[in-house]
Amino acid sequence: METQQQFQILIANETHLDFAQIICDEMLSSAKARGTGIAKRSPEYIQQKMREGKAVIAFNQDGIWAGFCYIETWSHGEYVANSGLIVAPAFRKGGLAKAIKKKIFELSRKLYPESKIFGLTTGLAVMKINSELGYEPVTYSELTQDDAFWAGCKSCVNYEILMSKERKNCMCTAMLYDPKDHYEPEETKQFFEEKKGILERLLRIKQWKFLQPFLKKDKEDNSTKMVQASKRRSLLQYFFNL
């Protein structure tokens, strides 16, 4: 198994443009394998992020592409998202995703020191990584309300669920790092470790609850198509605003 020390994680630039198609293909393939949604991005969009110095890319010791993540800004720079985190299948479960998240987080803090950094995820593993960086679970109302951001969810298989909830909740869990008002990483990490069993069960309940109206609708229509699926309050309250 590969280890973090065997990878080189760089700020992407024009020399990496040829990897854009590979990255997009792997993002889509990974989402399909997990049965989760994804906001699709074109190779041209990924290349733009590389040119702007708003992405990080990872290679193994033999120069083989291993992972990627990029930065997006919303609401005139008030919010920053670390998006499109992907690790090539051959290099998963070796700590690379965590290393990439740390690198893109540091880059975001350098480029946008006053901005709130947020993310949406359906995975407990990513929630764990975010918690170790100081992110906290929040309601969707604390994220950017920029229509351009939410428009990016239209290509996600769960978009109908998002709109049925009036953009107030969906299958993803929202997490936020506010540089002006946040818990320390030690606190958020400890919270996650203490509650991860409960959170995992609640994630399953949330997904089941959100899918029920759509499964019922499909059944009534005789269709064979299935739907694929203030800061100091208790952190658990933020996760499941059903």
List the helices and strands and how they pair.
Layout (H helix, E strand, L loop, with lengths): L6 E5 L8 H15 L8 H9 L3 E6 L4 E10 L4 E9 L8 H16 L4 E6 L2 H10 L2 E3 L8 H5 L7 H6 L8 E5 L7 H36 L15 H4 L3
Parallel strand pairs: 4-5
Antiparallel strand pairs: 1-2, 2-3, 3-4, 5-7, 6-7
Helix pairs in contact: 1-2, 3-4, 4-7
What would you note in describing this structure?
This protein is an alpha+beta fold and 242 residues long. It folds into 2 domains: 1-110, Aminopeptidase (3-Layer(aba) Sandwich), CATH 3.40.630.30; 115-242, no CATH class. 42% of the residues lie in helices and 18% in strands. The protein has helices at 20-34, 43-51, 96-111, 124-133, 147-151, 159-164, 185-220, 236-239; strands at 7-11, 55-60, 65-74, 79-87, 116-121, 136-138, 173-177. A 7-stranded mixed beta sheet has the order 1-2-3-4-5-7-6, sandwiched between helices. Mean pLDDT is 82; it is low at 222-233. Keywords: Transferase.
Report how far apart the termini are. Answer: 40 Å
**DSSP, total strands:** 7
Radius of gyration: 18 Å
Which regions are unreliable across 5 or more consecutive residues at pLDDT < 50? 222-233
Protein name: GNAT family N-acetyltransferase
GO molecular function: transferase activity
Keywords: Transferase
Provide key terms for this protein.
242 residues, alpha+beta, Aminopeptidase, 7-stranded mixed β-sheet, 8 helices, Acyl_CoA_acyltransferase, transferase, transferase activity
